[in-house]
Amino acid sequence: MAPWTGAELSMLNPLRALWLTLATAFLVTLLLQLVPASLLPDCSLFQYLIRYGKTKAAGPPRPAACRAFDIPKRYFSHFYIISVVWNGFLLWCLIQSLFLGAPFPNWLHGLLRILGASQFEGGEPALSAFLVLVFLWLHSLRRLFECFYISVFSNATINIVQYCFGLVYYVLIGLTVLSQVPLDGRNVYVIGKNLLMQARWFHILGMLMFVWSSAHQYKCHVILSNLRKNKAGVVIHCNHSIPFGDWFEYVSSPNYLAELMIYISMAVTFGFHNITWWLVVTYVFFSQALAAFLSHKFYESKFVSYPKHRKAFLPFFF
Asked: pLDDT (tens digit, 9 = 90+) per residue, 150-190?
């Protein structure tokens, strides 16, 4: 496991700069939401950009011109279609290189170099990046399945900026994983020329955490969808209700907490020390915390009997 050195910390390549910027932006946005509204200038456009779905109802009235850019929240499925196809392609390229010795396409290799792909000296074990890319693809495939067969979408909306951001996000996240693969020219460099020889205890721990977090997220999505169905599984309404069970007993948005845990499991799989991925985790933390906070405020404003002990995102803390 490579140590965190001062020189490594100072290397702010394009990907690290991007994820650091996104994390900072969502941190500032979250902090602004914690400030009493009376102390801030009225900015309905800002609230329009950060809210989606049910949380739009709890925000200020949207500018009339903005409503033309609303699209159905069910279009979330497009994010996962893009991810399954694009990250599946990246995974296929990695498999070809790892097991058949095929080099990356010129355009992909050039893009990875621009983004800051590591060279083989002191680079990540190829097995770590391979497992994380597999996790990312499986996560996207499960979420796509849930969008089609589990989730019950209402007439809630997202705006076009959020939609475009989501599409770009799943392209960038796959490139971020692939850029952590140690390269020797256009080929993947495998230490010892044997992928299985790179297996370490943190790969097993990361895999177990990924399965555990994914199972809880799936269960939370099932609980949410069942609120809109009868006992026969037939959708009877699209209203919001108070969910109970599993992690809902502790936080209002356990699906967002599980999302964070999934990304932390990937950081563990990278061996704990991958700075680029921890910046991704930091972004995920603040973005999911913001969404969870807004969702928590919605539940509190809509249901007078909402459980007082529930936190928004982190059990017992926030």
From this structure: 999 998 999 999 999 999 999 999 999 999 988 877 777 66
Give the separation between CA 92 and CA 130, rounded to whole angstroms: 10
Residue with tokens 């050039």: 110
CA of 199: how far to CAs of 51, 122, 125, in Å? 42, 16, 9
Q: What is the DSSP letter of 104?
A: P
Query: How far apart are alpha carbons 12 and 309 in whole angstroms?
Result: 41
Strand partners, 70: 159
E strands within the chain? Answer: 70-72, 157-159, 183-184, 187-188
Express each pLDDT in 69-82 by its tens digit.
999 999 999 999 99
Per DSSP, the three-state class of 132 is helix
Structural domains of the chain, count:
1
Neighbours of 301 (CB within 10 A): 11
Provide CB contacts within 8 A for 289, sequence distance 6+: 26, 30, 256, 312, 313, 314, 318
Residue 188's beta-bridge partner residues?
183
Domain-located, residue 312: no
**What is the domain range of residue 110?**
13-302
**Alpha-carbon gap, residue 227 to 239, rounded angstroms:** 8
